[in-house]
Write a structure and sequence with these properties.
By secondary structure, the protein is an alpha+beta fold. Helix content is 24%, strand content 32%. The chain contains eight helices and 18 strands.
Length: 337
């Protein structure tokens, strides 16, 4: 994923490869305003089968790279794609792999910059999380409820693309298309087609992913996330990909927003290299002494930490967020390693 590709759950506008996109409450794109603005080479991650725990809940997780086939993505984007798990956030990316379309014709720079991003998560109250995410999306963007896909679904429209968020049993997944060359109708139709395929995959039992050690949902509890958001009740969601990246995302009950997220990379991708790459890619940062093996505050509500073979970060978005507030969450997380 490009270093300028910064999508967030939260209402804001960012720039992706030169064009503006709305980055509203696109479920499961995991605060990428803070988290995936870095390198994303593919990696072979953890073995199959595992569970995420928050309190007494034990929940299977799903691989976002198996929701639909590579050919399904290629048909929508009109070009051959490569499929890679992200190394900075628990996502899967489908990016254009060549300068020619599926018929051998040279494609435009807009087409080459297009991509599809998927994410999938679960929780003890996944419907509660879904409903809060939809409420925040409605308050910030153009959304539309969609019938006939999963148990419930809604779409989000923005310049140069769109997204669909689907609730199916104890799983929620999102598919986001960033394609400035496609008409809005084509994007929305494509999202629905991909979502129907993905719903079938989820319904038939996608193989589970292992939970990394440490797990993000054990490093920070729902009670601590609530305290960080000044006592607001929260719903949590666990997400992961096959590169060993996992996240615990806590969403506040208010439509105005408020989220706390802890993202862990414990895969085989090289924690120190990822940390150094993230650090060198930011012009504004504050180094923090005495936290993990190395840490810095990026002045965008996120602290990034290297601890042994684990690279993780904590982001808080909401009212009265400070470096000290985030640091408190980080220190408690480190005590659980």
């Amino acid at each position: 994923m490009d270093s300028q590709y910064c999508i967030s759950f939260f209402p804001s506008f960012q720039h992706h490869r030169g064009y503006a996109i709305f980055t509203g409450s696109v479920f499961l794109l995991l605060l990428l305003l803070m988290s995936a603005c870095g390198p994303t080479q593919g990696a072979t991650g953890l073995p199959a089968q595992g569970h995420a725990r928050q309190g007494n809940a034990a929940l299977a997780t799903f691989d976002p790279c198996v929701l639909f086939a590579k050919d399904d993505a290629s048909r929508l984007l009109g070009a051959t794609v490569r499929v890679l798990p992200d190394l900075a956030a628990p996502l899967c990316t489908y990016t254009v792999a060549s300068a020619a379309d599926t018929k051998g014709n040279t494609i435009s720079s807009f087409t080459r910059s297009s991509e599809i991003v998927t994410a999938v998560g679960t929780a003890d109250n996944v419907r509660g999380y879904f409903e809060r995410d939809r409420a925040q999306a409605r308050a910030a963007a153009t959304t539309q409820d969609v019938s006939g896909i999963g148990d419930e679904a809604f779409t989000i429209k923005f310049a140069a693309g769109g997204a669909i968020v689907v609730l199916r049993k104890d799983t929620v997944f999102s598919i986001t298309v960033l394609a400035p060359f496609l008409q809005t109708t084509a994007v929305q139709d494509g999202l629905r087609k991909l979502a129907r395929i993905a719903t079938g995959v989820i319904s038939n039992g996608t193989p589970s992913l292992a939970v990394p050690n440490p797990s993000p949902c054990t490093l920070m509890t729902a009670q601590e996330a609530s305290q960080a958001l000044h006592g607001t009740s929260v719903q949590w969601l666990y997400t992961a990909n096959d590169a060993g990246v996992a996240s615990c995302d806590y969403i506040a009950s208010t439509q105005q927003g408020g989220r706390v997220q802890l993202v862990v990379n414990s895969g085989e991708s090289g924690a120190r290299n990822l940390y150094q790459s993230q650090q060198s890619g930011l012009s504004k940062k504050k180094m923090l002494n005495g936290i993990g093996d190395a840490a810095f505050y990026d002045e965008r509500n996120t602290i990034w930490v290297l601890k042994g073979k684990t690279f993780f970060h904590v982001t808080i978005l909401g009212p009265a967020v400070s470096e000290a507030l985030i640091k408190g969450v980080v220190v408690r997380a480190l005590a659980r390693f």
